[in-house]
Design a protein that fits this description.
It is a single chain. By secondary structure, the protein is an alpha+beta fold. The protein folds into five domains: 170 residues, Sandwich (Jelly Rolls), CATH 2.60.120.260; 86 residues, no CATH class; 136 residues, Jelly Rolls (Sandwich), CATH 2.60.120.260; 239 residues, no CATH class; 41 residues. The protein is 21% helix and 28% strand. The chain is built from eleven helices and 39 strands. The chain has a seven-stranded mixed sheet. Strands 1, 2, 4, 7, 9 and 10 form a six-stranded antiparallel sheet that branches. Strands 12-11-13-16-15-14 form a six-stranded mixed sheet. Helix 3 runs parallel beside helix 5 and helix 5 runs parallel beside helix 9. The longest helix has 26 residues. It is globular and about 100 Å long. The termini are far apart.
Length: 744
């Protein structure tokens, strides 16, 4: 195993002095409880060049996950350690860089391990990366998963306005941040249970090198696919990225070989339930031999992120402490905190509501207009005004979150606060008080009600939850295409998707058998390509240059498979609507702005660039979204539909999936379609314009009322039509009754 090297910053005596000081002050802070963690004074900043000799156990996060913006941000990670590593590691290294606008006296990165605060590193590295060692007390680490929490508290140097808070950022270099493993302390990988502790790549991913020849047939690719999923589930690997090559891999990671295709002379050191672990004698790399037919019951990889919850069917009521959020005392001007609620693929949104009950309070320094805003998936759903110039205490202050704003998959509930004060106008950052303006206690609660289960399609979470046989379609057996498909399957396994019997098909797509389709845009079948064009918008041409406009159009066509010369390829949005259609669309857009499930307008179309990745759920036959006048809901008994992953070329597809896994945003794939920008790491989600309801095989009596309520709220035009029919029937019957009985 090739060691990961880091720079030795300090001379031995200086390092020991700093470590001793940190250990003493961290212990004092832990004993005190209320005392803040001490600042670590770094003697100098350096560029992160690494000659070396030290193994680093990195955090499972890339640059996206280790960049902190705003005045307060916190994230939690799990790092797996072996028994010897947990016993001998005594240093956690931070590689910090921050914006020049930070005030270092009031800006810091706080590191906590397994619930104990170790130190706060001052944010004073605007021009170079600063490497700071932090002492880890003996006995704090445990074999297996260890929780590392990173909290950034940032203050602007010269500007005290709310807009200035958007300029604040600090970032940790993922390649040089982690636990420093002393020489000889690294555990030998001797079995499946040890694989989770294997070193991660610099971007926080687990690299799996599948030793397989280019040009493999369907049977070989199928065996490799099953082996990859078996390995990820059994070893509980995080953020897997798969590469395909006949030779040994490079850098941190595992080499996977399929049983029956072992290289000559390979003999596993240990073998358990069809998985053997050994070492390549020539390269020293970890080699894992997997029997693809020996998989056991699937195991979902548990989420360790703070504030992530999966509500049970009958709902729950939990405190913020139970959800992994500690009490937050905020001294800045723009507060932001979030909880992630992961709902099952068959979640049925109704007119019910979840509730936040906030404990805490705010100071008397606030001014008129300050308050809290509650958002669900970016949509403002509620607000809490805060009293000006008067302190206030929250005692289970209730805020309602309508369920109609939630969808299957991950949902982000965000609390935003504007907390201006009169002293901000003077902005004397060195002398102005930094007292708490807002406190959100960990006794605050989130109550999520029980909900009905009714699958709707097309939905990416529902397509990922395919059971039974799963056809996997690839355009060919080139390295990029195989690696892209195996990366998708590996991440499906890591996210806890149910096990399915994989059936790999090369080249030809059976449009009557929906499954997983991983291919470049120009390799998609016509029906799938047409369905994707109804989800995307052409890139607006640049007026400054005709050539630039042509290039933009070419990029869009390459990403979506569109052809402007073929009339049949016109998207539904290009057809001139009727006046009634315009009126209905306007009504739907207004209703959707209030959170109803249907009615997405053209603004929801995804604008693709040539390097973007597109993930979409497509119904069989590539059906277009329902027409504006189609008010009656659709029903089916078959929940199977396509999960399509595409980009402009096989290389772009493979690179985009690599970047998506490194960004840690796989769990944000939801709705009908998602665009991922590999350059910025941003995700754009499109919810379906119309859904088809999958009739359940069994109906629970308790679900009848919420299901009917959900159908009525999802289909307002149908509800209005039924209401008019009922009113008309009552009117006619009343008129007939009056004529028959006469007026009294």
């Amino acid at each position: 195993m090739a060691p990961i090297k880091v720079l030795a910053l300090f001379r031995p005596h200086a390092f020991l002095l700093a470590a001793s000081t940190l250990a003493l002050t961290a212990a004092t802070a832990a004993a005190d409880g209320a005392a803040p963690a001490p600042f670590v004074i770094a003697p100098r900043t350096v560029a992160a060049a690494v000659p070396g000799g030290v193994l680093l156990k990195r955090l499972p996060a890339g640059q996206d996950g280790l960049t902190f913006r705003g005045e307060m941000a916190s994230r939690r990670f799990a790092v797996a350690l072996g028994r010897s590593e947990a016993a001998r590691i005594n240093t956690f290294q931070v590689a910090l860089r921050n914006t020049v606008s930070l005030l270092p006296e009031h800006s810091a990165i706080t590191i906590s391990v397994n619930g104990r605060t170790l130190a706060a590193v001052p944010a004073n590295a605007a021009d170079k990366t600063m490497l700071v060692p932090i002492a880890v007390p003996a006995g704090l680490l445990v074999p297996g998963a260890n929780t590392v929490q990173v909290t950034a508290t940032l203050t602007h140097r010269v500007d005290c306005s709310v807009p200035a808070t958007y300029e604040l950022w600090a970032t940790l270099d993922p390649s040089h941040t982690g636990f420093v493993v002393p020489d000889g302390a690294a555990d030998q990988i001797a079995g499946v249970a040890d694989l989770a502790a294997a070193p991660l790549a610099e971007d926080g991913t687990t690299r799996i090198w599948v030793r397989m020849r280019e040009g493999a047939d369907e049977a070989e690719i199928g065996q490799a696919a099953r082996a990859v999923q078996t390995l990820v589930r059994r070893a509980k690997l995080v953020r897997p990225v798969v590469e395909v090559a006949p030779e040994a891999g490079r850098g941190p990671g595992l080499d996977l070989i399929v049983a029956g295709h072992e290289p000559e002379g390979f003999a596993p050191l240990a073998k358990t339930a069809g998985i053997g672990v050994g070492q390549d004698a020539g390269t020293g790399r970890i080699m894992v031999e997997v029997d693809p037919e020996a998989d056991e019951a699937p195991r979902a990889t548990p989420s360790v992120a703070a504030g992530v919850v999966e509500p049970p069917r009958d709902g729950f009521r939990k405190s913020f402490a139970q959800l992994g959020r500690n009490t937050e005392v905020f001294t800045g001007r723009r507060y932001e905190a979030s909880l992630a609620v992961v709902l099952p693929p068959d979640f049925m949104s109704t007119n019910d509501r979840a509730r936040l009950r906030l404990d805490g309070g705010h100071s008397a320094t606030l001014v008129d207009g300050d308050g809290l805003a509650l958002r669900v998936n970016g949509t403002l759903v509620s607000s809490v005004p805060l009293l000006a110039r008067k302190a206030e205490r929250f005692d289970h202050r209730e805020v309602e979150l309508p369920l109609r704003f939630f969808h299957p998959g991950r949902n982000d509930v965000t609390i935003e606060g504007t907390l201006s004060a009169e002293a901000d106008a003077q902005c004397k950052t060195m002398t102005m008080p930094h007292e708490a303006r807002l406190t959100i206690a960990d006794t605050s609660e989130l109550e999520f009600p029980g909900f009905a289960h009714l699958t709707t399609i097309p939905q990416i979470p529902a397509a990922m939850a395919a059971r039974g046989d799963l056809p996997v379609y690839l355009p060919g057996s080139d390295r990029a295409s195989m690696a892209a498909a195996l990366t998708v399957l590996a991440n499906l396994a890591a996210s806890g998707s149910p096990a399915a019997t994989l059936q790999v098909h090369l080249g030809i797509v059976d449009e009557d058998r929906p499954g997983l389709l991983v291919a470049a845009a120009d390799q998609l079948p016509a029906s799938i390509s047409g369905a994707l064009r109804s989800l995307t918008a052409p890139v607006a041409p640049a007026p400054a240059s005709v050539d630039a406009a042509n290039a933009s159009a070419a990029d869009t066509d390459a990403a979506t498979g569109a052809s402007e010369t073929t009339p049949a390829d016109a998207t539904p949005q290009s057809v001139a609507p009727t006046r009634l259609g315009v009126l209905v669309d306007g009504v739907r857009a207004g209703l959707r702005s209030r959170g109803f499930f249907f009615g997405n307008d053209k603004a929801d179309l995804l604008t693709l660039k040539s390097d973007d990745l597109l993930v979409a759920a497509v119904t069989p036959g590539g059906k277009a979204p329902r027409d504006s006048l189609d008010v009656m809901p659709r029903f089916t008994r078959d929940a199977t539909h396509w999960l399509v992953v595409t980009a402009s070329s096989p290389a772009t597809l493979d690179g985009g999936l690599d970047r998506l896994a490194a960004s840690g945003r796989w769990d944000q794939l939801r709705g009908e379609a998602v665009k991922f920008d590999p350059t910025s790491g941003e995700i754009e989600v499109r919810q379906p314009r119309g859904v088809t309801y999958v009739l359940p095989s069994e109906v629970v009596v308790a679900d009848v009322r919420p299901i009917l309520g959900g159908l009525m709220s999802d289909n307002i035009l149908m509800s209005l039509a039924i209401l008019f029919v009922v009113m008309g029937t009552l009117g006619v019957s009343t008129h007939a009754l009056v004529r028959r009985m006469g007026a009294k």
